[in-house]
Amino acid sequence: MPSPDSAERAQLVERFRRWLRDQRLPVTHPRDVIADLVIGSDSHESVGTIAAQLKARGERIGTATIYRTLDLLVRSGLVRANEFGEGFRRFERVAGKERHEHLVCVRCGRVVEFANERLERMLPIIGDEHGFRHERHRVEIFGTCRDCLQRELGGLRS
Ligand SMILES: [Zn+2]
Ligand SMILES: [Zn+2]
């Protein structure tokens, strides 16, 4: 899914600032920078990828601050945390983004997004069939991505 344009990005970061003020939490430079990075990203960032990008930007922000800021972003509802079975969380913007599920490559860790209306309609019905009132769901399909499959097939041929 494409990253937001600069106006939308600035607006979402501003929403986070407003949320912090509403919670009586200080708006700090690290919080601003991390929010801008995660909200402006079109991929699924981990603490590691965020730390690397901050370093590349010349920002000296500690890991503990990154963790805390990500928790705040999730609490604000602007960002969602995903568990892709890697043992750590990956974060992505939810605001202004279409509802989607994920395909996760178990070889290279690539995450692909998909949206399927039929599936989204089906899951609450399945809940219903079990006398279960659906509230929310997440679908993750684990497998091997096209590139990794091709690499494997190439390896077999040579
Ligand atoms: Zn792969
Ligand atoms: Zn996603």
In short:
The protein contains six helices and five strands, in the order H-H-H-H-E-E-E-E-H-E-H.
Can you describe what's shown?
This protein is α+β, with helices and mostly antiparallel strands and 158 residues long. It has 2 domains: 97 residues, Orthogonal Bundle (Arc Repressor Mutant, subunit A), CATH 1.10.10; 61 residues, 2-Layer Sandwich (Dna Ligase, domain 1). Helix content is 49%, strand content 15%. Strands 4-3-5 form a 3-stranded mixed beta sheet, with no helix packed on it. Helix 1 crosses helix 2 and helix 2 crosses helix 4. The longest helix is centred in the N-terminal third of the chain and has 17 residues. It starts with 5 loop residues before the first helix and ends with a helix. The site of one zinc ion has 7 residues, from helix 6.
